[in-house]
Amino acid sequence: MRNRTHTKAIIAVMLLFFVASFVRPQADEKISANLERMIQDQGEQARFTVWIFFKDKGQELEKKMVTVQSTLNPRALKRRLRHLEHTPLVDEYDVPVEDKYIQSVRSQTIRIRHKSRWLNAVSAEVYGFAMHRIADLDCVKRIDRVRSFYFREPDPAQTRSTEKPALTTELHALDYGASFNQVNQINIPALHDRGYSGKGVLICMLDTGFKNFTHQALEHLDIQATWDFVNDDPNVFDEDGQMGVGNHGTQTLGTIGGFYPGELIGPAYGASYILGKTENTEWERHIEEDHWVAGAEWADTLGADIISSSLGYRYEFTHGEENYTFKDMDGETAIVTQGANIAASRGILVVNSAGNEGPALPGENTIIAPADSPNVLAAGAVLPTGMRVDFSSVGPTADGRIKPDVMAQGFDVYTVEIGGQSVYDSVAGTSFACPLVAGVSALILEINPTWTNYDVMKAFKSTADNFSNPNNEYGYGIVDAYGAAFYGEKKLYPPKSLTVETIANDYIFFTQYIDRLTWSANPLNEIPVVSYRLYARRSDIQADTFLLIAEVDSQTFLYDRRGLLEEESFIYKITSISDTGEESDPIYATSLR
Amino acid sequence: MLLFLNVICVHTAQATQISFGLNYGFRHVENGEIQETYGNGTVYVPYFRLTPFKSVGIEIAHEGGYNQRGTVGIFQEESTLSVTGWEFSGVVYLPISPLIGYIKFGLAYYSYKQEIESAFIREPVDEKQWTNVFGIGASLMLTKGLFLSVEVKTIPLRVRPFDREVDLSGIRVVGGIGYSFNF
Fold first, then answer.
1. What is the DSSP code (8-state) at residue A157?
2. Residue A341 and residue A332 in contact, taking contact as beta carbons nearer than 8 Å
3. A43, A91, A309, B73: which has the fewest Cβ within 10 Å?
4. For chain A, which residues lie within 8 Å of any Cβ of chain B, measuring from their own Cβ?
5. In this predicted model, what pLDDT tens digit does every residue of A66-117 receive, in sequence order?
6. Nearest to A510 among B75, B79, B164 (CB)
7. Same structural domain, A127 and A250
8. What is the tally of structural domains in chain B?
9. Complex prediction ipTM
């Protein structure tokens, strides 16, 4: 009886092995269908850039994790401590790719481009004929192509507008010059006025190359590290004989961190930066996703708090390969999205441009990766007036989530130009909405150093101007930096959106003017507001000071300031008053006659 | 004009006649905006006339009574517009039995005042201005001294208290009773 049982068990085990031998991936199955097709089309002598994914991280994983934790950058450790409070600080993603595996494939490759511990893969240049040899290796799990994309900028015809800023700069501690509207629209001056500039926050910019650091608006920047992931060297400037740089990276850097009073002040001029060149700007801006993932891992290693990425991947450039489709924008398919998801899981706040692909066909989307990730804050573009720019990409994601997340100015954005040390330009694209939002993120983290990346994202979405009715064109709306920075506090907020309408009052023999002030209750206020105080000062008299002109009850949202003359113009401010007599910070508006 | 009166006086010397009377009647307003807000009105005009010569005299008159209420501005505030003035005219008589017609021409010193019931008015309108007066009229003697009269006059009064011109001109059609005697 016992012998018969043993015989059955042996047969069962043999059957299991027999079945497993069929289930185990064969070399052909490890190579993606797309890559197989490309090899067939282009021939075995052609060179391909591929991802080689490995099956695991090798032996003694626990021991390796302990080693990684002991060598974590202090900044990275600090970030993870606040993000991963109840989970291990280090996991399998942090363990480097097993060196033995790399060595086993190296001889079959032309060169290894990047090693990704997050994807447990290397990107490599490989001849077609070597592909099956690599696939035959036991440590290899899958081989797929590295996707190449075409970097799109908005139609140049849309890069200029004649609209002037709605408000002057004189209300604030800093003179923002022509950059006032782009920061004021998202309420940044209210935080700058209080001394916040992103100090202590490390921002990683992933973009084209960066140059012209002696520009008057860039020379103050604290740049802690640079790396060129395209050429694999630390030089992110132009290099003779190497792939060139565009001005895109320099301009996004100027947008977020520029500081030259009277000309340009970016939201996070006091932050520290690391700059990663992840775009090959030679040949019509040809970019590849493995550079981005490598850049994100580098950001994690150096302890970056924020990644600002004005790049996106969806519409391909080379060799007629198929694009990512709208169905792939599901937050987990594109490689860069997977990379961004892992970056977010390390506590990094990833801010990405939503894309410049404009409206979508019914039922589709035009969002680009990695902005499709639920863990990435996708920034769409609005005009200086607050209307969405036509080219700003729209959601929803393939799995039905709202995208973009928030909006900032992406048209007529004033920033540095590479052509001189005091040259500026106005540019357009969600590429420039992105650094504005990322800059606000730095201010938020400076004010709230214990917040996680998800806390910041929640604060953004809960305080943007469309938060109560989000949609796939505006997302949760235009950012409110001040509201987001103090989100969740039982704080007395000023009312929202003070506006001034000037009305002529005709008395036949003469005309006087009325400044009609309107505002609305701030839904963030958890402290009961009993009244609003209105102040005014002449804007045409430099030395004038604010005087109280009225205090109205909390149900009143309109005040007519009457009896004004044509030559008089005013700056108004309004505050909320609590039942304990506390007075909020003010918001401002000006009358223009 | 004084030269003109002087010439006439020399040629028509007679006993000096003194007349005084009171006219009352309709006052038209040219300006559409003023008319819409305050309307046409009525005026009273007491006058004193000295006629040292048979066909020539001088007149001092006061016009009052145009004191109209209306609402102005986007808040429809209550307001009052009053226009009053003094007139100094030369009068030439043209006897057309049984009436004594006359024409008059002279200077007028008018004041205009707009009072708005609002705490927000920074610079109220309260101005004075010289202008001209031109009128024609006729008297009908009822007795040796008592007479009835009618008169039509116009006073061009374009004012600019601030930077906007407003036309307060208008024709007056008035009538009344008077008394004259030789002195």
1. G
2. yes
3. A43
4. 503, 505-512, 514, 562-563, 565
5. 888 888 888 888 888 777 665 677 889 999 999 999 999 999 999 999 999 9
6. B164
7. no
8. 1
9. 0.86
